[in-house]
Amino acid sequence: MHMVHEMQRLRAEHVALTTLSGFLLDLVAAPRPPRPTELAAVRGMLRDTLVRHLKCEDWALYPRLKTSGDPELAKLACDFVGEMGHVADAFAAYDARWTAERAAADWPGFCDETRAVLGAVGARIAREDRELYPAADALALRRRHAAQARERKAAAVRAAG
């Protein structure tokens, strides 16, 4: 997939993750657990979206940034990879620990941990939007301009020859 399209998809996933986090935060704001199916549906959509998002970053975005030829961009990508593992691991541990039964049995504990993990995910999204994605956009723009310059040069050579 072209990098511009990947960035559009990643940004759309940020919007979806923020929306789903809001739904889950609304549920945990209640004094008692919601219907188990409602909680499971929101948690499942959040988990699936987050896993898909992280895989796209890990398999497409970070490798491109690391091999961009720009040392600052490569370092930024490495820093984000190192830091993201902590958020991903924390979310995976949270998700495994809080079964539907356990969440219902310790609703206040589940609510507290949910707010904490979603705070970490939200902070990560904000930082990516502020630092990482603009750097990736700049790389995509540089690559597009370089490709256009190569095409113009090739057209000029064909026209002259």
In words, what does this structure look like?
This protein is mainly α. The protein is built from 5 helices and no strands. The longest helix has 54 residues, at 107-160. It is elongated, with a radius of gyration of 21 Å.
Low-confidence segments, ≥5 residues, pLDDT <50?
none
Q: What is the count of β-strands?
A: 0
Shape: elongated
Structural class: mainly alpha
**What is the percentage of strand-forming residues?**
under 5%
Radius of gyration: 21 Å
Biggest sheet overview: none
Compressed to H and E, one letter per element, the order equals HHHHH
- The rounded distance between the terminal residues' Cα atoms is 34 Å
- The helix content, as a percent range, equals over 70%
Mean pLDDT rating: 91
Tally of individual helices: 5
Features:
mainly alpha; 161 residues
Topology:
Blueprint: H1 3-28, H2 36-66, H3 71-97, H4 100-105, H5 107-160
Helix pairs in contact: 1-2, 1-5, 2-3, 3-5
Briefly, what is this?
The chain has 161 residues and is an all-alpha fold.
